Amino acid sequence: MTRLFNDPDDFAADSAAGFVAASGRWVRAVTGGVVRSTRGAEPTVSVVIGGGSGHYPAFAGLVGPGLAHGAVMGNLFASPSAHQVHSVATAAHEGRGVLLSYGNYAGDVLHFTQAQERLRAAGVDCRTVTVTDDISSAPITEREKRRGIAGDLVVFKIAGAAAEEGQDLDGVERVAARANDRTRSLGVAFGGCTLPGADEPLFTVPEGRMAVGLGIHGEPGIDEVDIPTAAGLAELFVSSLLAEVPDDIDLANARVVPILNGLGSVKYEELYVVYATVDRLLTEAGITVISPEVGEFCTSFDMAGASLTLLWLDDELERLWLAACDTPAFRRGAVEGRVAVDAIEEVAEEIVVPPATEESRRAAALITDVFAAIADMLDAEAEELGRIDRIAGDGDHGIGMQRGSRAAATAAAEVLSRGAGARTVLHHAGDSWADIGGGTSGAIWGEMLVALGESFGDDAEVGAADVGAGVGRMKDAVMSFGKATVGDKTMIDAIVPFADALAERLAAGANLTEAWARASATASAAAQATASLTARLGRARAHGDKSLGTPDPGAVSFALITRTVLDILQKEN
Ligand code: ADP
Ligand code: MG
Hints:
16 helices, binds adenosine-5'-diphosphate, Rossmann fold, elongated, binds magnesium ion, 7-stranded mixed sheet, 6-stranded mixed sheet
């Protein structure tokens, strides 16, 4: 969905105006598109690229020193006219000839070819290298019919670098053609894109399915499959591209630049998940990966999809690929004088489990059971806790507690199996809760569990009085750590009455289960009572009265946890 536009008919022009306004360091507007706003000391061959709009950073985002000299900007997904191409090329021309380069689409070919003829008629030496990297769009025997997708970047970059080096038009044309020859891509899509003002997407992909080889304007692909895992997608990409390695490549000595490209609405983080496997598979195939790129290089509005491009390097292509460039969307080099640091093998932190007495290990086993039960309980409650947090917070309390408690349960079981006592189990559980749970609540639960563990030690039985004292220490620890007091509408509003009630009942002679039952009921009531408070601390503070009527999520989850502990204490008896 494209949400922001004025008159949809003016979208491409409005967007171009904003791009130029924001990018004066690199470009200036001319009829039909943009050209560089700077000039080098010596004239060079001019590389002019272009195509329809909606593919940013292709094409205008790639204009600047070391890359393109000009970009022709057509309307949305529509080829620019011959007139526009001619105009941009003429403005970009520095007297040493023009290389036109663009993705191979029928409309673009017609208009750019016409413009080339006009330029030649006007005495400008003009050549063309179209980009044909998309392996799904025609068989290898008909390479010249293939479409251009993210491989555009490779061909433009190599041509731009060759021009920057001072090569003549023959040289620039030759390396651009060679770059195209050694570049292969495959793309997939999970969903179509919607042009500004349109009610319907341009095309759709059925829910849960992935179109393999679907073109960047919705041109049909070669297959449709269920959406695989990220690793599954990486395998599809790599195996398909390795099935079509250029003839003169010896895999054992091959060097390759992988470019993992997002088509518009796939997150960078998702791309990195895919890239992790791409990198591993290429390395396992004996290929040396050089200067990879992960990001958006050729998009298709808000299309959900991705593509992988492989550029098979030789020495010349490598030099040109690595050469410095500076454009709005793609930059390289320029910060001098840096050396690579030696990679240091990260050694996994070794967990040392200190000796513990039999009594403490027994307590540790019970605590480990408690963590497992808490994690199960939070699995069931996560959604509701998230809902409460969404009202005045950010909605992540449920998943945070779920993740944190599950990590704590796993860590507790791990050290217990290695003979840990109560202190050590709580310590590792607390650290894992804080690491994996994250958020304010993760930090606080981590602090509480570590404090409880310090109180229990690894050497003694944990009796009722120890639990009472430990909970008191735990309460003090959170209060000094989080600086909240009763009435701030945080989990402190449940923790303080809980700790007080527990101490009071134990002092009155109740056994642990009875005292805990009373304290837990007190905590539940106190947590519910936070509904009438306005948050003064934490994330909810900014939303002031918005939380009125809703209890504090951290207080609610604390009360639920005391309830789960109670169930276990009751079962023990
Ligand atoms: P985040 O606020 O980082 O999104 P969570 O949503 O997981 O973290 O946890 C929110 C809970 O953290 C709140 O409901 C509140 O109970 C608790 N909290 C926030 N600030 C404090 C604090 N200073 N002391 C104690 N608890 C706090
Ligand atoms: Mg939150």
